[in-house]
Specification:
With about 775 residues, this protein is an alpha+beta fold. The protein contains 22 helices and 20 strands. Helix 4 crosses helix 9, helix 15 packs antiparallel against helix 16 and helix 20 runs antiparallel to helix 21. The longest helix is centred in the C-terminal third of the chain and has 86 residues.
């Protein structure tokens, strides 16, 4: 506007005031500098702070562990996490430690500076000489990932005042604002002179924290540092005092108290069949050692001819468990395998702190589960069979660097070399154990027979029958020689021996024939079982992929919603109403599609969370069916299928079983019905679900108006691998048939004292499956 003062004039006016506003002067000075045609420089949008928190820290548990690591770096001996109203949205979390605290200069130059190198420049903490757990200077933005507002209170020993800074992430750090123009409110408060530490009061939490999520936090905290040993602190600079240790409390419970749930060292790890350790030396040579008191082993293997020159010096150690017969003593296989599924794996620790996701239940960074599933290696060697760690040091393993998200290491050549070293060492050791235990170790060992394998009955009869006959003849011969009173005794005895020999051999042939018949029957069952197990293994592997798919969908939900919101704002801002309309229509379709995907991911996550629980408990039929129908409501609507249900008003509960098994039954019935209905091309499309109490059993009936089950195959539909739908169609939920669905349903019913049969459908329906299991109420009364 003509006559308006220039930035330079406004600066002069502000400087002339008794108390100039230096923020105005700074902003106008930046404007003048940026206006120069010969000067260009990067600027930072305030919204970048939100993206750092929401996108660089993938999981809330990871955000918490980053805050705990910051407390450790600040020489804290104790950090407390206090949740308030955490079981619903908008709760509060307080993270408090007794570390060194921060001065005003530290807040400005380190805490408020993005990607600072302060931790790299000062690799050890000042008080205890701890090796810093963080390096990139972005871990602090985990607080933005957790909540919408933050109140930071920090105190340094020897001062009378603490510093309090408040942040409103969503209100202040908005897209479109310059980061330089965002100021957070800071003030001082009175405090005891000798007190130090930092409190992070994170309010308006972005997610709820129910008890099962808090349990995952405990697991992350317990495994943040290696739980299998107490490692000595590395050599410290002169002048530092002994490190008293580091402890975490969550809602009043300390990690020492909660550690009893893990109890790895005293109640579990000592039951390992072997210990495996290995190292890469500074010159790139490598070795692995296997020690087993149970098997009398103490062997060492050198990686002759192989040099590992990229990783730097590395060590690893792990306990190895075999949960089958002969592999454990003093602990049940079921208990051991449960612990293995929960805590097993070979983890990576860097500067003494955990690097995720290595060692998580669904992470297979050493390809142990994959190769075991494909039978490339036949000895027991899944991730759940190992409890171990790989120890890295940021100074000597500089090529092994964490990603910005703190979710893994950058997968460069050094990382692949590390994988090769650990995998080869572990495989050599478990193969050695397998050889000593006389187990087949490789699929390439045709005709291998363990000495522990029992002899077949037919072979035993064929081997023992001649010995039995020879023994009888020898005994009769001895008696004959000692009997000299009768002249015809020898002749009569010889005739008797011939008769006995024929009878014994005839009996042996009969036993041999019957044994062979039984063995053929068992062999056929064994082949069927192997085929069945192989298909189940394939489905289990598919289940891991599905679980990963569901997890990734859930993880991307917030980012996708945020990006679509931003895109919508850009459309509204940049285009005319006429130009906006077609884009808004496309965005609406995109949102509908995304919603369907998120619903599917939510169902998968719910299903997998049920599958992970090994607890047997009574299941409410009504609750399970209503939850199932709610999860599939969009899918059924898309298929134009109407679901009618006649659920008993009585509170029907199954006997104690896994919730995921009932989900599997419902899903199998649903997919079969959808395929049948689509083949029949009927209209309207209908499914009917009903429940009832049937004597000692609860009954679930599942009917549809598809083309039904032809009488000629009715007696085969529950056989393994029998299917009429090997090829899929465009329906991703129903998919192709494997021939195992109804077999699995039948197995589940039999396991819990029930059955599944083809029933008589009601009028208007063409197929009815009746699924029965014992009733919890009836079973309790018995």
């Amino acid at each position: 506007m003509a006559g308006a003062p220039s930035p330079k004039e406004l600066i002069e006016q502000e400087l002339a005031k008794a108390s100039p506003d230096w923020r105005i002067i700074e902003r106008l000075s930046r404007y003048e500098v940026d206006a120069a045609p010969t000067n260009v420089r990067f600027s930072v949008d305030a919204g970048h702070i939100q993206r750092l928190g929401q996108e660089l820290v993938a999981k809330p548990e990871s955000a918490l562990t980053e805050l705990i690591k910051n407390a450790y770096d600040a020489d804290a001996t104790h950090v407390t996490l206090t949740f308030r109203n955490h079981d619903r949205l908008h709760g509060e979390l307080i993270v408090a430690d007794n570390g060194c605290g921060m001065t005003a200069d530290t807040i400005r130059d380190a805490w408020m500076r993005i990607s600072t190198t302060s931790k790299q420049d000062q690799a050890r903490s000042p008080r205890f000489g701890r090796i810093r757990a963080g390096r990139k200077g972005i871990g602090r933005f985990a607080v933005q990932r957790l909540g919408k507002r933050l109140l930071l209170e920090t105190e340094v020993s020897g001062t009378e005042k603490g510093i309090r800074v408040s942040f409103d992430w969503d209100a202040d750090f908005r897209a479109g604002r310059d980061l330089y123009d965002v100021f957070s409110s800071a003030s001082e408060y009175e405090k005891p002179v000798d007190r130090s530490g930092t409190r992070l009061i994170i309010s308006d939490l972005r997610e709820s924290w129910p008890e099962q999520v808090v349990s995952r936090v405990w697991k992350a905290v317990l495994l943040l540092q290696p739980p299998f040993r107490v490692a000595a602190i590395a050599a410290r600079p002169d002048g530092t005092i002994p490190d008293p240790g580091f402890e975490v409390s969550i809602n009043g419970t300390t990690s020492r108290q909660h550690q009893s749930e893990l109890s790895l060292q005293t109640t579990f790890l000592n039951h390992a069949i072997a210990e495996i350790s290995g190292a890469i030396t500074p010159d790139g040579s490598a070795w692995v050692r296997l020690v087993s008191e149970k098997l009398g082993l103490d062997d060492r293997h050198d990686y002759d001819g192989t040099k590992f020159l990229l990783t730097g010096p590395v060590t690893f150690s792990t306990r190895y468990f075999v949960y089958g017969k002969g592999g454990l003593s003093g602990i049940s296989a079921r208990t051991a395998s449960e612990i293995g599924r929960t805590y097993g794996g070979i983890r990576i620790y860097r500067n003494g702190f955990r690097v995720l996701p290595y060692g998580e239940p669904h992470d297979d960074w050493l390809r142990l589960d994959d190769d075991s599933g494909r039978r490339s290696i036949l000895v027991t060697a899944r991730n759940m069979n190992f409890f171990g760690e790989v120890a890295l040091d940021a100074n000597v393993n500089s090529a092994l660097e964490e990603t910005s998200s703190r979710e893994g290491l950058i997968e460069n050549e050094a990382f692949r070399e590390l994988q090769k070293f650990v995998r080869q060492g572990v495989e050599w050791a478990v193969t050695r154990v397998g050889v000593v235990r006389e187990r087949k170790t490789k699929a390439s060992q045709p005709g291998f027979v363990s000495k522990l394998q029992p002899q077949k009955p037919s072979e035993a009869v064929r081997e023992l029958a001649p010995q039995v006959v020879a023994g009888i003849i020898e005994e009769i011969s001895d008696k004959t020689c000692s009997s000299r009173d009768e002249s015809n005794s020898v002749q009569n005895s010889l005739h008797s021996m011939e008769v006995i020999e024929k009878k014994v051999l005839s009996f042996a042939e009969t036993v041999l024939e019957k044994s062979k018949t039984y063995e053929d029957y068992i062999e056929q069952e064994r082949r069927d079982s192997i085929e069945y197990e192989e298909m189940l293994r394939v489905l289990a592997s598919l289940g891991l992929s599905v679980a990963t798919f569901g997890h990734e969908i859930s993880g991307s939900k917030e980012a996708m919603i945020a990006n679509m919101t931003t895109l919508s704002q850009y459309v509204d801002r940049l285009l005319t109403p006429q130009e906006r309309m077609p884009l808004q229509q496309k965005m609406s379709l995109l949102q509908q599609t995304a919603t369907r995907i998120f619903h599917l991911g939510g169902y998968i996550n719910t299903l997998m969370s049920h599958a992970e629980s090994r607890e047997l408990k009574p299941i409410s039929l009504r609750g399970a069916i209503e939850r199932f129908l709610m999860e599939f409501s969009n899918y059924l609507s898309g298929q134009s299928i109407e679901v009618v249900h006649n659920l008993s008003s009585a509170p029907l509960r199954t006997t104690e079983m896994h919730a995921s098994e009932l989900d599997a039954v419902l899903l199998n019935f649903l997919t079969n019905s959808v395929k049948s209905i689509k083949k029949a091309k009927v209209s309207p499309r209908r499914i009917r679900i009903s429940t009832a109490l049937d004597g000692n059993h609860v009954l679930l009936s599942f009917e549809d108006n598809g083309n039904g089950v032809p009488p000629e195959i009715a007696d085969r539909i529950f056989d393994p691998f029998f299917t009429t739908t090997m090829t899929g169609d465009d329906d991703g939920a129903a998919g192709p048939g494997t021939g195992l669905g109804l077999k699995i349903v039948s197995d589940i019913a039999c396991t819990y004292g029930g059955s599944v049969i083809l029933g008589v459908p009601e009028d208007g329906y063409n197929c009815c499956f009746e699924f029965r299991v014992l009733s919890f109420t009836k079973r309790s009364d018995q």
